[in-house]
Amino acid sequence: MFVARFGLICGVPTKVIAVANQKGGVGKTTTSINLAACLAAAKKRVLLFDLDPQANATSGVGLEKTEGASAYRPLLGEGTLLEKIKTTAFERLEVIPSEVDLCAADIELSRMENHLFRVAQNLRPIVESNRFDFILIDCPPSLGVLTLNAFAAADSLLVPLQCEYYALEGISMINRILKQLRDGGTNPRLELIGVVMTMFDGRTRLSQQVVSEVREHFGDKVFETLIPRTTRLAEAPSFGKPIIHYDKYSAGAAAYEVFAEEFLKRIS
Question: In this model, does residue 7 exceed pLDDT 50?
Fold first, then answer.
């Protein structure tokens, strides 16, 4: 039903989406993996670009962390990102993997000319090839050079925000960086497509209060869909599967399917 419903939505030009939050443990990679998988299930051609040296998005879709497989060398001018694209077990979902060598990229890139545009320059041939409908970049949990490169390359920014009281601190910093990138000319087109609330527990007053506060602060930038905190959602990455392929009848799968639908409507 999910795929059939999406079949009615018209295609869009290739869109590059950075999924970012400077705080770790907010569901950033979980959102990257599962949004990518749901878009692919909706017959969209998706490239998941793992730019986080922890490589959790890579293992989360069933790929091994392999030496030399990441974007590190292309970002330094050795080879191309096209050569790094790997297929997955999931139709229409491909990946540029990550591994630990990306840890050195923040230092190496900062010494290079046009250091904030290395990701954009390397992604350009992929974007212009029209091979994908969406490129989702899973950013590191920081606002270092790699994340800023993703921001410079992206059309839109998606911010996962966990349902806790410290949630607003991370996004306020990202908002400031967003404004600086626009005003400084690094990426004038970059927009905040929205904030998705993660790890929601409807049984607690805390989760409900945080969602209410975030919506009051950010208005319609907050997606209606709430991603629940569930055991099955937490288990899925250890099996190398997005939740819709691990337990398609779970609450987490249903939430990400609805979120993907809302995402597509917003970005079209």
Answer: no
